[in-house]
Design a protein that fits this description.
This protein has about 80 residues and is of the alpha+beta class. It contains 3 helices and 3 strands, in the order αβαββα.
């Protein structure tokens, strides 16, 4: 349901880079799997391949870096705890 609302919001405003209305929510990414893109309202324009946050209409670069660092720290902590 949330994806439908996100898709409709994105289609109403279009891509901030090229103005195309052909946009869709990203369902999976290399940096966040299935959870990361949903957390950041990650949207991709089908015309120019620009990805952005559909709520802020800004790139998600900062959020992706923070998400990746936190995931790496948690992963390293788990490895450390398992090997103790």
């Amino acid at each position: 349901m949330n994806g439908d609302i996100l898709d409709q919001l994105s289609k109403d405003t279009g891509c901030p880079k090229c103005g195309s209305n052909s946009v869709s929510a990203v369902g999976w990414s290399w940096w966040g799997g299935m959870i990361g893109p949903k957390m950041m309202n990650h949207t991709k324009c089908q015309s120019c391949s620009y990805t952005y946050n559909s709520k802020t209409r800004q790139p998600n670069t900062r959020g992706i870096v923070i998400y990746s660092v936190i995931a790496a720290v948690i992963g390293l902590a788990l490895v450390f705890l398992i090997n103790r």
